[in-house]
Automatic annotation (TrEMBL):
Keywords associated with the record: Carbohydrate metabolism, Cytoplasm, Hydrolase, Magnesium, Metal-binding
Protein species of origin: Quercus rubra
GO molecular function: fructose 1,6-bisphosphate 1-phosphatase activity; metal ion binding
Cofactor or coenzyme needed: Mg(2+)
Record localization: Cytoplasm
GO biological process: fructose 1,6-bisphosphate metabolic process; fructose 6-phosphate metabolic process; fructose metabolic process; gluconeogenesis; photosynthesis; sucrose biosynthetic process
GO cellular component, one term: cytosol
The protein, known as: Fructose-1,6-bisphosphatase, cytosolic
Catalytic activity: beta-D-fructose 1,6-bisphosphate + H2O = beta-D-fructose 6-phosphate + phosphate
Keyword DNA damage: no
Top-level class of the enzyme under EC nomenclature: hydrolase
Family under the similarity heading: Belongs to the FBPase class 1 family.
Fructose-1-6-bisphosphatase class 1 C-terminal domain: residues covered: 203-332
Every Fructose-1-6-bisphosphatase class I N-terminal domain range: 11-199
Length: 338
């Protein structure tokens, strides 16, 4: 009976957010409207990504179609969809996208109170081999939506109102936090709705998996090299961690969130700030990890305390199970004492 009730009591993402919003009587539903436009963008990208495999046959996504027109690459197409969906929501005033060198300042007639930072299709180099990819986003409330400046988005990640990602894999999974825990929704294609499937996600306190591109080992600094060595040759007699590295941040972070363990993209001699972008990769994933009971560290500080100076700034990142990240912090602290 309960199963039947659950099946018919559909907790869609819109209903879920409306429930959340009802806790803030003064809210005017703006966030719900903003989120529904982000969800719309994800649904579009989900169908486009799923068709990408056929693209070679029907000339989409970066191929030339039958009319000989050069089709946009999927990440450019996805960016167009998100920018248009966010502007048409009438709830944003600044957009920062991985795809656009400059921030987008929304025209005054369509301005709203939110700034959205996003990577429309992270890991898109993996599309052709069918590896899961995703959209990552973070949302700030702006102080001055009349004459907004870049300062509104050069804010530490701890000031974000919400963050999330949508993973386009064997199923389309939307993971979201509005600052009161983390919830996962799965797209039911027959309904065209995201349904709550992973309520109140909590990351295990310690995990058995480490996730890093070992190909960069030659260039790692001491603490990172020491930590990875410990994962492979534990000194306390425990069994070694397993290495799982997909090379698509959304997929590696989603597995870490659900199974536990640690994901790291450290600094190295070639890239002293690592590779991942602060605003729309490091901050949203760090926000989610903290909300799920894990943590995120840059090698110097709590990731969410970082104050970016440039909208495309990079940072090293160690994120995941609380105790695993603690070990990394201890190794960097010991290094600082030398
Ligand atoms: P590497 C994908 O290109 C990406 O931006 C992230 O999704 C992923 O975590 C990382 O780069 C992989 O980088 O250097 O290991 O190939």
């Amino acid at each position: 009976h309960a199963a039947e009730a659950n099946r018919t009591d559909l907790m869609t993402i819109t209903r879920f957010v409306l429930n959340e919003q009802s806790k803030y009587p003064e809210s005017r539903g703006d966030f719900t409207i903003l989120l529904s436009n982000i969800v719309l963008g994800c649904k579009f990208v989900c169908t486009a990504v799923n068709k990408a495999g056929l693209a070679k046959l029907i000339g989409l996504a970066g191929e030339t179609n039958v009319q000989g027109e050069e089709q946009k690459k999927l990440d450019v197409l996805s960016n167009d969809v998100f920018v248009k969906a966010l502007i048409s929501s009438g709830r944003t005033c600044i957009l920062v996208s991985e795809e656009d060198e400059q921030a987008t300042f929304v025209e005054p007639s369509k301005r709203g109170r939110y700034a959205v930072v996003f990577d429309p299709l992270d890991g898109s180099s993996n599309i052709d081999c069918g590896v899961s990819i995703g959209t990552i986003f973070g949302i700030y409330m702006v102080k001055d939506s009349i004459e907004p400046t870049l300062d509104e988005v050069l804010q530490p990640g701890k000031n974000m109102l919400a963050a999330g990602y949508c993973m386009y894999g064997s199923s389309c999974t939307f993971v979201l936090s509005t600052g009161a825990g983390v919830n996962g929704f799965t797209l039911d294609p027959s309904l065209g709705e995201f349904i709550l499937t992973h309520p109140d996600i909590k990351i295990p306190k310690k995990g058995k998996i480490y996730s890093v591109n070992e190909g960069n080992a030659k260039n790692w600094d001491g603490p990172t090299a020491k930590y990875v060595e410990r994962c492979k040759f534990p000194k306390d007699g425990s069994s070694p961690k397993s290495l799982r590295y997909i090379g698509s941040m959304v997929a590696d972070v989603h597995r870490t969130l659900l199974y536990g363990g640690i994901f790291l993209y450290p600094a190295d001699k070639k890239s002293p700030n690592g590779k991942l972008r602060v605003l729309y990769e490091v901050f949203p994933m760090s926000f989610l990890m903290e909300q799920a009971g894990g943590q995120a560290f840059t090698g110097k500080q709590r990731a969410l305390d970082l104050v970016p100076n440039d909208i495309h700034e990079r940072s090293p990142i160690f994120l995941g199970s609380y105790e695993d990240v603690e070990e990394v912090k201890a190794l960097y602290a010991a290094e600082d004492k030398k």
